[in-house]
Amino acid sequence: MAKKKRPSKHSKPSSLKSGRPPLSRPSTSNTKLPSLSSKHTRTLINTHHLLQKRLATARLTGDVAKVAEIEAQLAAQGGLESYQLASRTGQRNDRGGDSSKVLVKWLEGEVQARKAALRGSRSIGEREDVDNSKQVTLVEGMKPKPIRILEVGALSTQNALNIAGITTVRRIDLRSPEQGIEEIDFMDLPIPAAPNGEADSGYDVLSLSLVLNYVPDPEARGEMLKRTTQFFNTPTSTRLQREQSSSDEEDQTRVLPCLFLVLPSPCLHNSRYLDAERLTSILNSLGYSHLHSKTTRKLYYSLWRYDDQHARDQWVMSGGQTVFKKTELKPGGGRNNFCIVLETE
Length: 345
Ligand SMILES: C[S@@+](CC[C@H](N)C(=O)[O-])C[C@H]1O[C@@H](n2cnc3c(N)ncnc32)[C@H](O)[C@@H]1O
Fold this sequence. Notes:
alpha/beta; Rossmann fold; 12 helices; 41% helix; binds S-adenosylmethionine
């Protein structure tokens, strides 16, 4: 059988949607959650991931019959829609809750600072009561900038990230389960423009919660991580912030801009090819520094500050690795094959 040409490793990251099964039905519906047992939920999610992986391999080897067979299996299982429903069931409070609460906890300092600034601006506004037009100008002028969040792989518009007056959240997914979630592949999402080096055209926080493990192959996972770095407020604004920051200590406590990364715990703690040290090196090589992490029985949560090209240059200058191939770190049975591969430009 004729083999399909493998895409070049250095080509522009391709849309992940092209490697996905068709969406099972129109995307604007607001489906009521059926009650699924946790065993059923787990089986559905695991089978979906397994079929996705097999589908990616069949596509790569150009096995057309196999592709059709796996797509039919995915469709019979309910496709991405059923997978999303199962994932939402898994987010219920009685099943461990939704990861956005952990992110908000780690952003607490930023949230409280803005709340205090808001209170301050309101009291100044009240003092200027005599002149209404001035009051508005003053209040608006003093208003803190909201924390701009991009949530990739969003299942609901209702989560802890919505904090009135403090955050603005843009949500995207391959399949939009409800209004307010844009249906777009992150790999196709236009990179924010920064006209004239203007700050604030990007995001302060990018959330990738249980998304990277959805991507079926290791190179595409690396591409996804690499792409995250282009969505933050411009490197110029980050650098300016750093220069304005009064001390190194202050710089150490800075949280924004940052990446929130959540993976199933076994992807990090029981993989042949990935562990916490390796993940840290991969993210350091992209210009991230580790701020927080926590592991529960099911999930690994982490927060990484993006320190831009400057940090990446320093990493390279100090001899840091920038290419991460599929290298066995922990041999032996009983482990999984989750892996992230990173190639240089
Ligand atoms: C397990 S759900 C995770 C949902 C939620 N973030 C959570 O933490 O529970 C994974 C979602 O990521 C979405 N997804 C995967 N790859 C994506 C991509 N490249 N762009 C946008 N969404 C993506 C899938 O469609 C799916 O709805």
